[in-house]
Amino acid sequence: MEEKGITKDRVFELLRNYKKRDMTHRSGRILGSMCTCPHEVGLKAYHMFLESNLGDPGLFQGTKTMENEVIATLGQLLGKSDVYGHIITGGTEANIMAMRAARNMCRIEDPEIIVPKSAHFSFKKAADILCLNMREAQLDSQYRVDINSVKELISDKTVAVVGIAGTTELGKIDPIEELSDICLEREIFFHVDAAFGGFSIPFLNQVGYDLPKFDFSLPGVCSVTIDPHKMGLAPIPTGGILFRDKSYLDVMSVETPYLTEENQSTIVGTRTGASTAATWALLKHLGSEGYQKIASRCMELTKLLSQGIKDTGFQLITEPQLNIVAFTGEGIAPCDIAKLLDEKGWAVSIASHPKSVRIIVMPHVKEEHITAFLEDLKDIRY
Ligand code: 0PR
């Protein structure tokens, strides 16, 4: 650190130089990310509440009320308005909280969790932090979890089963209803990771899609991860964790003697209220209609992109269920396709199961970006 500070102008000039080197979602060039341009209403609300700390909610009672309202609204969206939960940093923290609740409900030796092979790597972190053995269930031909594989893995050590509504790599929805039945019958905690799908599946169904049930309307579902900073258009970091019952929060709570609340169940102590304010504002401003339009438009563009990829002579890994497209090309490795696309300014990502080029058609991706992308893809092919 220098002894003397520099002027504000100079600071911002330097910041602008760093910013120039960052990609922007607005450019339409980021095609491998589950984040997007935050909506302006969410941004404004976020700025308004930068000072608010939900780690000490008694001081920020307005923000705390908003958090309660957001949780109730998300619960309603997911089939149950009287749910319990928090607005947190993202899907990773949400999944860790769910696994922690499941583990603490049982308190057995050598606890195990069963996750689909397609699960996000946050479950590996959860297993490591919480000393859980993670067992991976196989997938079926459509890359959804194979129910028989889950059944085979269940033992008296199982403290949680996880299903995914919108897998990270392919956007697939696991057979949540069947998993719910199995877990209900065997009295096993069942968590649904809808970090990606939570903000699109309900809205797509409202406009006539027929996507499978995945939420609290299924009696076996104990908790759901739903991330406003993915398809919810909130600024990062904004995640959501919802529990069917308050007891799941209670088993994680610790006493917080000198704060304005007596107990705390979140992992993070000091936590921003800005994310809550942004989500509250967006739910109010966009309403179901706004989110229906956003989710439907992403799906329309996903269809356009998928068709274009096939027409260009590449092969889709699977027909997209949500707004994620994965493909390969004969005689060319996915990482080489990605490299050639990168040279043309497109940031795609690589899926690992199976190895393929992966594109997430987030709300910042416009038709003109898809058209330009397909032109460049054609150049790679021929
Ligand atoms: N659950 C699912 C189903 C996810 O896809 C993700 C993240 C998480 C949980 C964890 O969420 P957080 O990252 O919010 O903790 N999925 C994206 C991924 O790993 C996250 C991401 C976003 C990656 C933007 C890259 C990027 O540019 O692909």
Structure description:
With 382 residues, the protein is an alpha/beta fold. The protein folds into two domains: 8-38 and 288-381, Aspartate Aminotransferase, domain 1 (Alpha-Beta Complex); 41-284, Aspartate Aminotransferase, domain 2. Helix content is 41%, strand content 15%. It is built from twelve helices and 13 strands. The chain has helices at residues 8-21, 40-48, 61-77, 91-106, 122-130, 147-153, 176-186, 201-206, 246-250, 274-311, 334-343, 367-381; strands spanning 84-88, 112-116, 133-137, 158-164, 189-193, 223-225, 239-243, 254-255, 263-264, 315-316, 324-328, 349-352, 355-360. The strands form three sheets. It has a seven-stranded mixed beta sheet, with helices on both faces. The chain has a four-stranded antiparallel beta sheet with strand order 10-11-13-12, with helices on one face. α8 links the parallel β5 and β6 (223-225). The longest helix has 38 residues, at 274-311. 48% of the residues are buried. The mean pLDDT is 97. Bound molecules: ligand 0PR. Ligand 0PR binds at residues 33-35, 90-92, 95, 120, 122, 164, 168, 193, 195-196, 227, 239. Ligand 0PR is lined by residues 33-35, 90-92, 95, 120, 122, 164, 168, 193, 195-196, 227, 239.
Query: Which ions, cofactors or small ligands are bound in this entry?
Result: ligand 0PR
Strands across the major sheet, in which order? 1-7-6-5-4-2-3
Instruction: Specify the structural class.
Output: alpha/beta
Q: From N to C, what is the helix and strand string?
A: HHHEHEHEHEHEHEEHEEHEEHEEH
CATH topology of the largest domain: Aspartate Aminotransferase, domain 2
Number of helices: 12
Largest sheet: 7 strands, mixed
Morphology:
globular
In whole angstroms, the N-to-C terminal distance is 53 Å
**According to CATH, what is the class of the largest domain?**
Alpha Beta
Low-confidence stretches: none
CATH H-level homologous superfamily name of the largest domain: Type I PLP-dependent aspartate aminotransferase-like (Major domain)
Number of domains: 2
- Rg for CA atoms: 22 Å
